[in-house]
Amino acid sequence: MAPGPRDGAPAPGSARIIAFSIRIFPITMSAQIISGTLLSQNLRADVARRAAALTGKGRQPGLAVVLVGDSPASQVYVRNKVKACEDSGFYSVLEKYDATLSEAQLLERVAALNADPKIHGILVQLPLPAHIDAFKVIEAIAPEKDVDGFHVSNAGMLMTGQPLFRPCTPYGVMKMLESIDYPVRGAHAVVVGASNIVGKPQAMLLLQAGATVTICNSKTRDLGYHTRHADILVVATGKRNIVTADMIKPGAVVIDVGMNRDDNGKLCGDVDFENAKEVAGWITPVPGGVGPMTITMLLVNTIEAAERTDR
Ligand code: GUN
After folding, report:
1. Ligand 1, from 74, 75, 77: best to mutate by most atoms within 8 Å of Cβ?
2. Does residue 116 lie in a domain region?
């Protein structure tokens, strides 16, 4: 058989059509991960050095953590807080009470801890059982031992000037922004969530750092409209996947404060991390992001409380 043209080769005498096959590789840059675990290592090393210096002077820093009830999540949180204290050379006490503890009994314990010179920081884990007025309990903590920064005098001082303590989670978020040298001044920050623990103090800290701040919540109409304008997006709603990749401005810093479980029981945040990391410039993981920073800033607040008593 006479040799014919190769498959696809032009027959002799026919016009040559040169087909270019251009393969366009989409250029997707994955976000840089802001590791709360790594950042915490540096900050905790500094805390441990300062704790050793105080201990050497016979003034070991001390934190009391009070847990009422048996919420499994709260038990894990307080265990981690107490362990971090021990690892940093603090004196720590964990007071665990049955959910039937009365409000009066809890107020009595807070008064005793206020008067205890070995204790520089007091943390009453929230939420409290429904029969206890959390506001009353927080107000009973001496402001100079309120290492959560929840007392009205510290919350008010956060609004108007220099609080004795900044709430740990939003304080940790600010440290994360600092760690990547992010120019917060002039940036548009959107905070999703308006709790007293995270959203409201977060907005205040960002505002004080010079950001233009929008505060949203889980009920905000067309949430994506707001989040797509965010240079800095802090999400703290406790609702898994409330922020998806299409709601993120390309290159934005995405800070995920959420702590949820997926269908397989695995820890996850409020942001659809796998897809969001292809759009964001920086993103925090869950676990290993904001969680460790919250505990680290509790240590920082407690060491500062102890150092103040040493002056
Ligand atoms: N419950 C959830 N987060 C916190 C926190 O930062 N401090 C206290 N006391 N309770 C919490």
Report:
1. 77
2. yes
CATH of the domain at 278: 3.40.50.720
Residue 298 and residue 276 in one domain: no
Backbone CA torsion sign across 104, 109, 113, 115: positive
Which of 71, 124, 126 gets mutated to test ligand 1 (max ligand atoms within 8 A of its CB)? 126
User: How many Å apart are CA 274 and CA 277, to the nearest integer?
Assistant: 6
In this predicted structure, the answer to whether residue 11 has a pLDDT above a threshold of 60 is no
Judgement on whether residues 245 and 137 belong to the same structural domain of the protein: no
Same domain, 273 and 197: yes
pLDDT score at 29: 78
Residue 281 is assigned to a ligand binding site? no
CA gap 36, 140 in Å, rounded: 32
**Rounded CA separation 220/215 (Å):** 9
Whether 13 shows a pLDDT value over 80: the answer reads no
Angle at 9 between CA 5 and CA 14, to 5 degrees: 90
Cα–Cα distance, 298 to 148 (Å, whole number): 7
Write b or e for each residue in 96-111: b if 16 or more Cβ atoms lie within 10 A of its Cβ, otherwise e.
ebeeebebeebbebbe
* Mean pLDDT, all residues of the chain: 93
Ligand 1 centroid – CA 60 distance (Å): 24
Atom of ligand 1 nearest to the CA of 167: 6
**What residue numbers bound the domain in which 111 lies?**
60-163+292-303
| Mean pLDDT of the region 250-268 | 97
Q: Is 168 in the pocket of ligand 1 (CB under 6 A)?
A: yes
Give the H or E element holding residue 253.
Answer: strand 253-256
Same domain, 297 and 149: yes
Number of domains in the chain: 2
